User: Fold these one by one.
Assistant:
Number 1:
Amino acid sequence: MKFSILLGGAAGQGINTAEQQLLNLMSIKGFYHHSYKDYMSRVRGGTNFTELTLSDQPIHTHHEVLDIIVALTPEVISDQISRLTPEGLLICDVKHPIPEGLSQKVISLDYSQILKTTENPKGISMIILGALAKALSFDEQDLEKLLNPKWAPSVLEKNKQTAYLAYEKSEPFTSLKSVDNSNTLTLSGNHAAALGALSAGISFYAAYPMAPSSSVMNYVSQYEKELNVLVEQVEDEIAAVNAIIGASATGIRAMTSTSGGGFSLMAEGIGLAAVAEVPLVVLDVQRPGPATGMATRTEQSDLNFVLSASQGEFPRIILSFKNVADAFYQTFKAFNLADKYRVPVILLSDQYLADSSSTIPAFDLESLKIKRYLQKEYDEDYIHYDLSTLIQDRACPGLSSIIVMNDSHEHDQYAHVTESAENRIAMNHRRMEKLELIETEMEEPIFNGHPNPEYMLISWGSVTAMTEAAVHMLNEMNIPVASLSFGDLYPLPKKTLEHWKNRNIQWITVEGNYQGQLAQLVARETGHLIQDSILKFDGRQFTPEYIVEAFKELI
């Protein structure tokens, strides 16, 4: 079962409030759900909407078709009505013009009269909730669960009256079968990433706000006192990356997050961490560029950039998030890898995943083990950059009588600056040879679909859910399609690619960028050229239906 609802209106009309309260109710009622925000970069006005997809199975994607549209402005109707199924429902204001010849069911409510009657001019989100509760055949008592007990008593009472009045004036439309979704969580991608960092034991978080990464800092700061974490909003992204490098050099787990524009400013710091071999974790929540680009839209166009950010050659690790749960586990893993190999680890998310919320299984905390690789017993003969080993427990300055130095110049084993050719060769070998070890820890892409495919779709990050759903739809049409979905991107895991690449298969990359950047990485690392592509770079996320139609056109 899949059922899709769109809540649309202008910024400032309470769409986010309605969404949060509705998600809470759906969790209580026992539905799996996935919500997706589409919003403009403005405080008020414009046309924004949230899509909520309900299911009796775990779900991580929205779909092209809608079962219910709740419109707070006429623009929502004109923009979205073509997506409403023939059996769908439109809930709108009596003042909104209804498209001529509309065959779907319509519930028209007098928004202004309801708000006037309840003396609640800011309660339009309660109209949404009341009308939807009736349309979905929820009990009247369920309205109590739609109200936030933290509201002031006067606000709570007015909102309750508004929701009840909208409920009374609406009609039942459908009844959905819920399931037992106990032992689950409802989180956004950014919230999951923040919890992953906190579970990994961070003590310091520094960042400069930049959409769509800003809420990571907001979530971490909620646990500042409880978990003894210092959260610092610094003056810019240069300060952020340098601050966490300094903290990490002293043995503290630290993190920053930003978007592509902020990561551009961090590039020099990435190089500093690399040559000094200081563990570093940076989350890049992608949005369309270049420059300011589209601040509240989504894209996967930073992969090429983070692969080569900062000058020179040095090892790095790049991990991406496939879904909300993955954001938690990949972030946790990033810290262990950074500490073990003393390299920059760059996490790639995007606006779609950052702002989307999903019902996910409760985290398996028992499986998580923090590995710090810090030297506990100090030896006076300690060598900070030991050429005899690629993995070593490190000492931290200030914790013993040992002098520990980190330097941005080329240096010898003791961090003394030198321009010796022999030393340069030895130190470069020490750093670069870590890539072979790191590659053994990279997880292979997930195979999904037909066991003997004629077509193979490859994707990464948040496009995974859409690609896998599209593969399922194509298999139901008796088209032998499969997919490989990457989470770990660099060093690129190659075993699964090698297994499939010499077969008579048509390869197609599915990516949210113009160039097919994963296909370029695969070609660079394996020599395997992927000629065909389904690409999207309009700032909006794929849907499974979009991929299916593009696939049909391609073949």
Number 2:
Amino acid sequence: MKSANAIAIPKQYKILLGLLALVSFICLLLSTHRYGAGIAPDPVRYISTARNIIAGMGVTSYDGTPFVTHPPVYPALLALVSLFTGADPLVFAHILNALIFSVIVYLGGLLIFRCLSSFPTLALLGTVAIACSRPLFSISGWAFSEPLFICFVLLSLLFSHSYLAKNDIPSLLLLSLSVTLATLTRYPGVTLMLWGALIILIYHPGHILKKIQHLALFSLLTAFPLLLWLTRSYLLTGTLAGPRRPSALTLFDNLSNVFTTSLYWYIPRTITEKPIFFLLISAGFCLFIGLSLKQNWQGIKIRLQQLTPVILFIIIYIAFLVISSTIVGYDHIRDRLLSPIYVPLTLILLVLADAFVDSYRRRISNRVVNSLLAIGMAIWLLYPISSSAIKAVKLNSNGRGFTSKAWVESKTVKYLNEHRTLISECTFYTNGTDIAYLLADLPSKTSPVATEYYSSVTVNTISSLKGMWPKENNVCLIWFDKINRNYLFTVDQLQKIANIEPIALLEDGAIYTIARKE
């Protein structure tokens, strides 16, 4: 284990990784420079929290509530960069995430080269796969915290290599720091705390007392900062991470989402949706694996043992996502949530492919087999490269989320910005408080909620709101047609409890006056 982890990466390969990282940065920057980073509800909270930190208003969101639904590192980083550059977080978010994406490519390349040092060509092609991967390229185009989280995940995996090779306190401190930053970037980072504890217990070669000492230090350094943050959240809101409600998704739904999402990373959807092609490819792949396992089981077993920390992380992370998403309603498991396992999973597939062909190297020729494997990998790369290229063109042409061309040119947003006197005359309700804040600098309240977010739990009924909403006088309702938040009551439903009269009916929304029905 030590020899595998102690392998030094030659300088020329590090230079190649740096060049790939630079190309990745430029490609993503060119894709997002016109419309900026994609903005969704979560990024609105990150950006507004960063702005409020800079303004001395504390760690609060755009609606004035304490920022607790996510950990603080990403908005704090946005605020820090804003303080140094003097630019608004919304303006440079796409530059920051392009830089983070390039770091992901570099760190992922280091991890792959460490495990495929005997086959640098395959390692380089694997790094290209990271640079042009659809999930990583896609989420890095948004102002999400996942890219930063993935950086800390990769650092944790790399530092675990150093720790397993040295088993000393400095390497343990680096591992602890990367895990701590991950947990303070995304709550699923708690999986790294469990993963790190198991790494220490399983792989530390010292006696039991030494293991306990290292485990205690790791646990203290990683758990204490998160405990402080959760304590602050509980004291301010009475919840550890904001209100959470039961999920409407089943265990089967989540397992299916994990399988299909990860499958589309490597196999085009057009193939998987055609049963005959899918069965033929699956049968050929299974046959190849079966023959390879039969001929080279010992070699594959050794390689898998070296990858046990990576495999362990994937298992723990997926188990956390599936279980938590089945219990708590927060989101579907798709590219965004599953993306942290892309690099580790790709690494495992590359190492398995390299191990599978070992027996053929002995029978045929090392050079011939390596060339065929590299050619096969290069052919497969056409799929992620083309997918990411199409995504890049769409990003450059239309943008995405609330900063996309469609939202920038929104008639409803334009009306709000041109009729600023409404702001002083009305108390606003809307189905898009985040959009009103981001695009119109308009404080507003959420229109009545029917069910919990991503849950079937009923919050209000129309009859319970009758005579109760709205409580204020001089109320206006902004309704954005472009968004479908089906946990809110519709305008038609609200007309049963309020007198709603249009101020402006527009192509993509409307503004109404509202008066409570007694």
Number 3:
Amino acid sequence: MAKPGAMRRLLFLLLGLGLCLIAQSEVSAGRLQNGLALHLVAAIVCLRSGSGGEEPVLPCFAPQEPLLQWWRRRLWFLVPAIVLAFDSFLLFGRAQGAWWAWPPYLGALLLLGLAAREGLGGNRQPGERRPWCALVAIVAVGAFMRLHRLSWFPPGVYYDEATNALEALYALDRHEFPPYFPGKLGYYGRYGTLYEYLLMIFLAICGPSELALRLSASFPGIVTVPCFYLLARQLLPKPVALLAAFLLACSRWHTNFSRIAFDAILTPTAVALAWYLLVSGVRRSQRGRFLLVGLVLGLGLLAYDALRLLPLVVVLSLFLLWLGRHLRLAELVSALAIVLLAALTAATPALFALHKDPKAFWGRAKDVVIWRNRTPWQAREDILANVWDHLAMFQFRGDRNGRHNLPGSPMLDGPAAAFFLLGMAVSLSGWRRPASLLPLVWLGGMLLPGMLTLRFESPQALRSIGAIPAAYLIAALPFVRLLVLWQEAFAARGSLPVRLLLLCGGLWALVAGYRGFFLRQARDFAVWSAFSTAETVMAREVARLGPGHRVEIDPLLSRHPTMRLLAPWFVEPEPFSAPTLLPLP
């Protein structure tokens, strides 16, 4: 027998979900004002359903081992780790590029892992069966989206991709393993050491080819899916966590950057791992997981520039958990110290790059910051405009760069686009419980690199790529309320209808993702032309012809690094001048 009060709340929620679908259809038709108004009405109607218990429930952090005893036992690992990291720092300065500068650093990472061994346990909840089959199927879908027709799209090797590969090949050929890449080939330096070494592995296996470039991005893109599920399972019930992972697996936004050889693809992986370790450390009362959080933060500083803001997000999250009384003050201070110590140790190569060439280390960030050549106060109007652009890019108007997105299309598709704003309203409705605000903190923190970018580039999907895990977790929140209210209304009948509804949502996400990426974005001319496609086609043809042919190159296409990558033996002539070359014999 259905409970009348629960049934009424469930009907309110279903009405709100239906209004969300209508609102998103209005947005898709170009009627943005109608869509925004309907989204607002949908949020009000859904919140009328009351609190369904969907906010993340985290226990108070209560480890069994006393704090001072934990530190005394871990110092046997932490002190040698710091010594080895410092030794590695000195060796990087004495012999840049020598392989023997790395073993002390790797030894320091190993010691951090040993010190955190209490935090390496499983993620299994009491009485829960691991959803291996469902998770394997979701990862397979994610692999399909990131590997399907990989030789066909992207259509070319973009300038930055080619220079990434050339730097890696230069180091491989000379057996150099530097802590950072200062740009010896005439291109700007690269401080994303972690991705460069990953790219080296694929170039060594597959050779200097487009396939090696694509796989070096697809691999971390696929790995992000199970990492994100681990995070979602800490905050959501299992069926909804699986749905959230499926939404990410089908994501057009994430799929796009999982095919481009940019170090930014490591950002969602690092964000998902750091967030998971932080929340699971509190849930399982294990300080060792805070060490692993610091390890991820330190390694993140060896990757994309946007991850330099991740430590700030972690610190804000710890303070939020303290305000929610999930952490005592002593444990908060200890957690901050643990994270800082591990992060500084793991970030040794980045710290060396900062010490060696601070101007170049911060150069790229200074070039793209919105208040370049002026003060933040003078740029306040542009900053506010950027904030609006990045909040609206999820459902209304996305990145206009064809390399990052189908120009102007929302960054989210399918159910994620329809229910994202509703998920934000659900999260905000639990503001009295600070843990429910964690998704918003991570979303806002990882949007900052895009919000603070140059005005003409806004919204910036690449620099905001770290917001992907938070965006899909927020989009899944309304389904938690649906699951809870259904079980309240029909406890005897179970939640099978809701599970079927979640399955339908997953299939909808798959169709929307495939159609949006392979049938629309990959066939759009603005996207095609954004990947240095003409230069790549020319380089492929030169490589196919081989030596012994006379080649004349248009001035607009000359001196492109893609030619050096795909046809390394080719020596480019001076660009031709049409009046002197024509007519051709």
Number 4:
Amino acid sequence: MRMGNVRNFGLAAMALAASSCASPASPREGDWPAFGRTHLGDRHSPLTQITPGNVAQLEAAWTYSTGEAAIETRSAFRLSTTPIVVDGAMYINTPLGKVAALNPVTGAQIWSRDFAVDRRGDFPDSASRGVSFWRDKAAAPGGPCATRIFVGVLDARLASLDARTGASCPDFGDGGVVNLKAGLRTGADPKWNAWEYELTSPPVIVGDLVIVGSTVGDNSRSRAASGEVRAFNARTGAQVWTFDPIPQDPNDPAYKTWSGPIAHQTGAANVWSVMAADPARDLVFLPTSSPSPDYWGGGRLGDNRYANSIVALRASTGKVVWHFQTVHHDIWDYDNAAPPALVTIERNGRKRDVVIQATKTGQLFVLDRENGEPVFAVEERPVPPSDVPGEVASPTQPFSAELPPLSPQALPKAWGATPEIEAACAAELAGLRNEGIFTPPSLKGSLILPGNVGGVNWGGVTYDPERGLAITAVNTIAAVVRLVPKDQRGRADFKAGGRLGDDGAIMLDAPYAMSRFFLATPKGEFCTPTPHGTLVAVDLRAGRIAWSVPLGMAPGQTAPDGKAEGMVNLGGAVTTASGVAFIGATPDGWFRAFDTASGRQLWQAKLPAGARATPMTYLGADGRQYVVIAAGGDGEGFGRSDQFVAFALPAPGRKVN
């Protein structure tokens, strides 16, 4: 591993206030009080009522409609919320700014608030992924705002609500709201896009601090909005600290890994995914993204440390404890999209507290939680150089050496479902740079595999400690990226030709624009071998892939999943102690259950739209275990809906046909 890939800035114990570092009480066995069940983010439930033997009896128990499906919007809004359940109530949010409390047994609404996000807003990522719960130990039980819901509203407002009533907590910020656009090093540019800076994921709470990241529009400009992570006092909303992944202090050891004319003016490298926290260690773990713009790094040469990294901060101060970079000098849009999972594994005969990070590159990194050192070996391997004038790609990249890749890393020859399609794909591939993973973008076009959706995207991993399995949804679709020179007026001639997944960006402050699309024939036939999406289980005791099965069916396909093509997926899985894994995530609109030990599909149910979300499970007051997923689609390939759907076994005493 290259020296400096892990940096340790002092791990000596600190004298901390009890409210800042004490471990929170473990959640009640039947609750799901945070996005990843706990702030550790393992997404594993101890519940055992639903088993591999009875999961096929699951039936819809209730649905809840947000009422937003029929609203016309400028952006394609994505209901990707994972609900939380705590103290007998379920809490959800929507991308249009609605927050609601529901009865977890019936789905009946208890209260709702509407923060009225502008429907005309041009939001780069118009998604909602959930809310956070906080109990004020200094408040009188049952008093106003003694328990609070914190929600990041899409238009960059952080709101604090009384969990019992939904009323704003007036002592927090300005009448219950903090404007997250205020105080940034570089803010959104109204001349470019006033909605460039957003909030799509729930904050993480450690002690009395609410810690929040941001979403910054991709590929917009070199000087994009800054991706600072900030901590606010949970009672008052006062800012306690800020951490900028683009180091601004020349004394910071990472500062010198950024060079070039605008290196330290670069934006993004933000945390748009979900953070994890270890309150007992006073640590918060940030999965950072790529610096701006995604596909051109000539203005920010060097490794760009803290970007594309897992950064462990002292939660009480925001100071760096250690960091591990998963991609050096990212020019592929290889964000750390997946939330970190903090789990305990058995390795070489002893238990280790680790951080599991799955990446868009299809790697699975397992790091010591205290110091960031790899628990499974990591190697720096040579990768292809850039041939674009002004660009300098990193000569090496980190690879997980002891764990196999989760997705293909190269496409050595053309592939097609028929000989005719294969010939058309060979023609598409012939003119591209194609040198395996980390082939840099080029002027003639480069094959990028994994593509910008991964590998592993924001669905991340769920970890089953009973079986030692890390389970994740994986994409295998290749993309083509071409850099397009600009003329003197800053214009570029895009010639993607309406390709499948066609996407382009002018990339302000850069000499090139970007054209990107899936590797496919002009007719839209994929040139990447099937399956195009998989559900993969990695055995962390043996260091091998335990099983891999196709996930999702292509339009019109009726074969069982064992023969399915597998589809691009966005969303994650959850596991239970009884050995069942649940996942939606596919555009075909099915919600599925798998046997955790073998990968065998056990059950599926049709949803009103594709579930571009991660499910959760909890024990209701009626004694039944429920599984809930947001089946909101995305207004595009996943369909469109506004429903949360709950499933449970039949009520006791009712016969099942």
